[in-house]
């Protein structure tokens, strides 16, 4: 048997005892799905740096196990960062009805918890994962607790964004949460979804969310994520999206939290006229590590993908961007663009960038670019020469660096929300 890392072995050893308290434990189909996930995880283990896709992100601190937290037990939930009439809240991996507002959803929008679906044996909504080689996804399948199940009927347009909150607090004995979200938009449906991931300061835990998204013909999902986990947390997220003909997927991820985080997105474009828009910003300080990894697969002709990611790194923080655009044979008249830029505020900060284009068709238009550097000293001197204090001048230049990527957020309210978050972060620069 393969020698596993300590945390992986702990999961394997306790699966039999834990499975009896997980949602859907009375369903043979759900039980079989979980056992399949565990078997794949046991054969893979947590990825090490010898795995090419993980060579810039070291999980050793996680795989040795998470220490017991010293944070106050049962602390109050952090206040929501975004205002909307539709709110679904999960606390320590479980749906919290008392902290949610779901009574104003329009007809045609169904929002339920994964736990409720699994308890009635609805494993079919998760599909099959037999060929999936991602260890953290397999682990999620084995131990998934709860999450969002969102279905929008054809033609529905939601009046306001849905806010999904995932909050981790100390005091329950659980320091890992494996959330599973399933989102399906019917033909020509339009939904805006905002995720907040938050944790109480001082609380150490592992967040392992997986999101499966299916967009039917002409559907549009505006999907925004704010990752503000505790500074002692580990956050490893996977988002898989399939786009049918004419569908549009807009994703923006803003990351300021966690000791170590990774936001991995795999997008499969299955229809002509579809558009994938992946953007984001990461703001890291101290010894934080933030990894953004994307793979966009153009599997048919005549569609578009765009990516812009920007990072600001202070102190000894580390950033990673790995972006791959894959265009299969016969996927002609495809456009794919990718850009990564990082601003280093300290000579101890660092960023690793690996952009890739894998093109097997000849009638395409693709580009990728990556750059990193310090603040422009000439621009800083110019602003100071005009009577602007150095700290204020630095903030102005940082704000200008972020401005164009924030403009990619098409929803005005979310753009203002993200701008306020970045302004608070910059107050500490």
TrEMBL record:
Pfam families, per database record: SUFBD_core (PF01458), SufBD_N (PF19295)
Cross-referenced SUPFAM superfamilies: Stabilizer of iron transporter SufD
SUF system FeS cluster assembly SufBD N-terminal domain mapped to chain residues: 8-163
Domain SUF system FeS cluster assembly SufBD core: 174-401
Superkingdom of the source species: Bacteria
Stated family: Belongs to the iron-sulfur cluster assembly SufBD family.
Stored NCBIfam families: sufD
Protein's name in the database: Fe-S cluster assembly protein SufD
Organism per entry: Sneathiella sedimenti
